Amino acid sequence: MKIARDIRVGNVFRRGGNLFVVLKAEFHKSTSGRRASTSEMKFKLRDLMTKNRTDMTLDATEKVDFVMLDKVPSQFLYKSEQYNFMNQETFEQFEMDDFSLGDATNFLKADAVVDILFFEGQPVGVELPITVDMKITYTEPGLRGDTTGKVTKPATLESGLEIQVPIFCNIGDIVKIDTRTSEYVERA
């Protein structure tokens, strides 16, 4: 058991017989109204079994049933109708769908090794590294002299994700992307 304010993004807890993975967690303290001085946690969640997304608000001191998942290092092989992975320890192959992977599909490239989360022997999610290196496949050339302030331009990465990059980045450059925010970090 954990109290709600200790739950972070990526944690899994059981509520009403359902398992939820935390996609976003925000702490709020009310200062007015009849709930003045009460602390609460607002969560954006995904049900691991039905794959539905939902919002939930809990008192910050409420206890929740925290669930530990097994992490298995796995290599992303390819995408057909599903995403295919191979367990790095046993070399067994398994598939995962778009719903289970969520936004992680934007950061998967062939041969990438990620931690797959298992619950009762079934893959239910993925834990990405904080940053990944990806190649820019398309971006407009930067204009000379356009250097005032922080100038950015759109760029398409090898996974199809479109992000904003600094004006000096070009096609073929490898850039480091923060997987939590989908933002440019630096050139690799």
What is the structure about, briefly put?
The chain is mainly beta and 188 residues long. The protein is built from one helix and 16 strands.
Sheet with the most strands? 6 strands, antiparallel
Form type: flat
Mean pLDDT: 85
What share of residues is helical?
under 10%
- Series of H and E elements: EEEEEEEEEHEEEEEEE
Tell me the count of domains: 3
| N-to-C span | 41 Å
Give your account of this protein's structure.
This protein folds into 3 domains: 2-67, SH3 type barrels (Roll), CATH 2.30.30.30; 71-127, Beta Barrel (OB fold (Dihydrolipoamide Acetyltransferase, E2P)), CATH 2.40.50; 131-187, OB fold (Dihydrolipoamide Acetyltransferase, E2P) (Beta Barrel), CATH 2.40.50. The chain has 1 helix and 16 strands. The protein has one helix at 98-101, and strands at residues 2-3, 12-15, 18-29, 39-47, 53-59, 63-67, 70-79, 83-87, 93-96, 113-119, 122-127, 131-139, 152-157, 162-166, 174-178, 183-187. A 6-stranded antiparallel sheet has the order 1-6-2-3-4-5, with no helix packed on it. Strands 9-8-7-10-11 form a 5-stranded antiparallel sheet. A 5-stranded antiparallel sheet has the order 14-13-12-15-16, with no helix packed on it. β13 and β14 (162-166) form a beta hairpin. The mean pLDDT is 85.
